[in-house]
Specification:
The chain has six helices and eight strands. The chain is α+β, with helices and mostly antiparallel strands and 192 residues long. The chain is globular, with a radius of gyration of 18 Å.
Length: 192
């Protein structure tokens, strides 16, 4: 079974940091542009975790709060990974809205094959991190998966303004486990 990750509740005035988990994270991007205007697509991820390095996130947060600092500390966006419900992800239900917005005829498919679900539940899968969040004895989030393939960036200022939607922050040991696994996933060697 995957590790139960310990979390801490934070106040709204606390600066954002690596390992913070937000709910209802809006992700927008330009879909197309022509002389008549720009079309945007917006996804709302039910939960997402900050993956960017703590020193960078905290420095940018302080720049935004105090409105002063070094130019070298500027970081326009923060790297995040969505957190999905395991059952929804297993059946690819979490992708239905994405495919509809993109006008793609999605073929129904299971995300996990053969022993993939067992491997993910044991937290040995290279692409997924099984997640159970607990604060003392209270379960905050259960039966969830971080999908490292779906990483995205959000403007730091947006996240600073959304601190009311911060669910909690993970203790640093568990945050490091996730970021190391994410780096391993990104540095994998593709085999044809």
């Amino acid at each position: 079974m995957a590790t139960i990750s310990k979390v801490i509740y934070t106040s709204e005035d606390t600066v954002i940091c690596q390992g913070d988990i937000f709910k209802n994270v809006k992700y927008c991007f330009i879909d197309s542009e022509d002389e008549n205007g720009v079309d945007f697509i917006e996804y709302i991820f039910p939960y997402a975790i900050i993956i960017s390095q703590a020193c960078d996130v905290v420095a940018m947060g302080e720049l935004l709060v105090s409105c002063q600092g070094k130019a070298t500390k500027f970081m326009p966006s923060i790297l995040m990974c969505p957190i999905y419900d395991e059952q929804t992800a297993k059946s690819t239900e979490h992708l239905i809205n994405v495919f509809e917005m993109e006008n793609i005829d999605m073929q129904r498919d299971n995300l996990f094959f053969s022993d993939d679900i067992k491997v993910a539940r044991n937290d040995w899968h290279y692409r997924f991190h099984k997640l159970t969040l607990q604060q003392s004895e209270k379960v905050v989030l259960d039966n969830s998966l971080i999908d490292f393939k779906h990483y995205f960036t959000i403007p730091a200022k947006y996240l600073m303004n959304q601190r009311k939607n911060r669910l909690c922050t993970m203790e640093s040991l568990f945050t490091e486990q996730i970021t190391l696994k994410f780096c391993t996933y990104l540095s994998r060697v593709a085999i044809p």
